[in-house]
Amino acid sequence: MLLSIFFCNFAPMKTKEFFGKFVSAFLLGNLLAMAVVIILLCFGVKYGLEWYTHHGEGIVVPKVEGMIYLNARTLAEEKGLNIMVTDSGYNKRLPANCILAQNPGEGTKVKEGHTIYVTVNSPSSPTFAIPDVVDNSSYREAEAKLMAMGFKLLPPKYVPGEKDWVYGIISRGRRVAAGDMVSIDSPLTLMIGSGMYDHEDEDFDYIEPGYQQYLNDESAAETDEFEEITEP
After folding, report:
1. Which residues of the chain are under the pLDDT cut of 50?
2. What is the pLDDT of residues 155-173, one digit of tens each?
3. Is 199 helix (H, G, I), strand (E, B) or coil?
4. For a designed S-S bond to 87, which of 1, 119, 163, 190 qualifies (C-beta 3.0 to 4.6 A apart)?
């Protein structure tokens, strides 16, 4: 019944009239309105987010590198920023608590309340444990290991022994051993073998004290067997 009514209503309709119902002013108006709403929505989201996040606006990070930490903190607070020490280093040419590095760098735009992370100069030189190189490595191996740690090496001191073998380490006039804590500013002198040995030490024969006394007694007995004869 319903199908017969549907076909009866649309049976005389031509193809042009059929598509004309879809391409009507009302439909085109709705489509145009939807396009306008979508465009406005896109612009609204874009500029709305920029306004909400203050895009393009911010505080320029000042240069605090090279400043004393207390002065840098005062400057940062005046700009509405925070400052935090995250690491320390050592440069003997700069004063203690001087800022060696900063992040973010100078000129970067950040939001109010952003934190500047800095590295400050230590008031004293760091100390490191002497590695196990004595009687355990060659001169080149010990030199490379100590210099990689940051130690300064003075010209080596040659001692009798195997050539280029490390026999000791001297720091400020005293011998140091593996594990001793030494300032990085203290220069080190390596005692290395010259390739020559002390022959006097090699030719020396050790005699036990008891046996030496026995030899002395034997010598005295042999002397007593001979009597000096003098002519009358």
Report:
1. 2-3, 5-7, 10-11, 201-212, 214-215, 223-230, 232
2. 999 999 999 999 999 999 9
3. helix
4. 119
Smallest CA-to-CA distance from 113 within 79, 73, 71 is with: 79
Question: Greatest CA separation found in the chain?
Answer: 184
List, in order, residues 6 or more apart from 171 with CB less than 8 Å away.
182, 186, 187, 188, 189
By residue count, the chain amounts to 232
Task: Map residue 148 onto helix, strand or coil.
Answer: helix
Give dist(CA 107, CA 117) in Å, integer: 15
Q: How far apart are CA 6 and CA 162, in angstroms?
A: 114
Q: Are 139 and 129 in contact (CB under 8 A)?
A: no
Query: Which of 65, 70, 121 minimizes the C-alpha distance to 91?
Result: 121
Q: Which two tokens stand for residue 205?
A: 């024969």
